Amino acid sequence: MPPILSLDDAMTKVSKTAETIRLRGNIKPHEEKRIQEAFALLAREPASAPSAKTKGRRNTFRDFLIKLNDYNCGPQFVVLCVVGLGQSVIASMKEGIRLRLPPEIKDHAHTLTGPVLQRLTEDCLKKGMYAHLEMVL
Q1: What is the C-alpha end-to-end distance of the chain, expressed in Å?
Q2: Rounded to whole angstroms, how far apart are CA atoms 59 and 136?
Q3: 69, 62 in Cβ contact below 8 A?
């Protein structure tokens, strides 16, 4: 089971992920796959899961990503959360942390994003043909 993070721990992971992506200049293939899966989850209702537990985690993760949208964080922050935290960590967070994380991310948006992340996010959206999410997210 993934560790249960505090709000500060989650923000630290998101911030370090942003820095790593900026320094590296790309995302790894397994990260891109997770990003595509997250955008697909946002683009449609979740498909049936093999178990109730898996379905619950997926729905919790999707609700979190939608909450990022509600705070107008943008698709680049979906990328940061997917790569830096992942579905399991987000789904296992205490609800209060999950609810406080999107506004916290929004408050630090200027230090988390940049041209490299923006370009990589646009590439992921185009590859998965989720360009319409740019308008939604």
Answers
A1: 30
A2: 18
A3: no
Give the whole-angstrom CA distance, residue 42 versus residue 19.
25
pLDDT at 6: 95
Are 23 and 91 a contacting pair, CB within 8 Å? no
93 φ/ψ angles, rounded to the nearest 5 degrees? -65, 150
- Tell me which of 86 and 73 has the higher pLDDT: 86
Task: List, in order, residues 6 or more apart from 54 with CB less than 8 Å away.
Answer: none
Residues 133, 42 contacting (CB under 8 angstroms)? yes
Min mean pLDDT across 34-38, 91-95, 124-128 is at 124-128
43 pLDDT band, cuts 50/70/90, is confident
pTM of structure: 0.87
Tokens of 20: 């790593």
Q: 9 CB contacts (<8 Å, ≥6 apart)?
A: none
